[in-house]
């Protein structure tokens, strides 16, 4: 994409994209703090810390290229509806991966990348999540082992975040711009999607879908029809066996204490380097249970929680300080303000994704695939205004 861009003159740049460039520049500067160990954390400068930093920098730079590439293609080279339906096709893959995670949760295989990479890289737990395909994460969210779908993405929370974004573009491409047959297939796909959405046990995903429905009700020109459809779908869901699983999940908020500890500790640590952060995450002493952490026979849930692991906002605070977090939030908030007046289906959908990006930064780590979908959605908004 960069090569193709280099051959085009002039290269168009969207309004507000300077904030993303400043975000990248700030991240480059934050590398100066990689070797620092703030109070309340432990760990020396290691290869893993450097790899994590470089990988995030590559993601930020790659997304800059992707946005400029998509925005500089003409509508003849890449029609808007084609790009929307590409994202819709990825939603179909997401539903298929989710069903695989429910039906065959232990399915996994060794990817070609794992064969190529040296063990000292592929053995890193963060890298392993990205290169070793698995159908689901097995977790004890309900007090017993239960699968949380993650295919084809890197972890279960990424599946939830991405599903809530991709379903928006799927509905635009298949329902909004589709004929009768596509609309029938859309209803079938949504019914199938409900299974992994519930089995994901992902409260953030459920809230995000609720927020999306509320947004559509406010901005839709046919709120009565939308309300009737939602009421019918909700009634069918409540009468299905899936509703009991949702109730069990809401009664098992096991991660609340963990999140409260890591978030508060992250803010305290970030305050010691508020301008440029520390370049990468840090491990905290203690956790929400004890000051003595580490797995043992009597405490298999103990461990060293990495600061910044509970949402993109907290990751930005620890890696780039309060300025980096403000630049990130300002970029997406600016897009909402700038494109709010676009009443087309693509415009309204794109603004919704920008708002979800702002909401999810409190609960989801945006790296890697989630941030890609946010920026591709931003590119769709930009293209729609030209």
UniProtKB/TrEMBL annotation:
It comes from the Bacteria. Keywords: Membrane, Transmembrane, Transmembrane helix. The keyword Magnesium does not apply. The chain crosses the membrane at residues 17-35, 50-71, 83-109, 158-177, 184-202, 313-336, 356-382. PANTHER family: LIPOPOLYSACCHARIDE BIOSYNTHESIS PROTEIN PA4999-RELATED, TEICHURONIC ACID BIOSYNTHESIS PROTEIN TUAE. This is O-antigen polymerase. The lineage of its organism: Bacteria, Bacillati, Actinomycetota, Actinomycetes, Streptosporangiales.
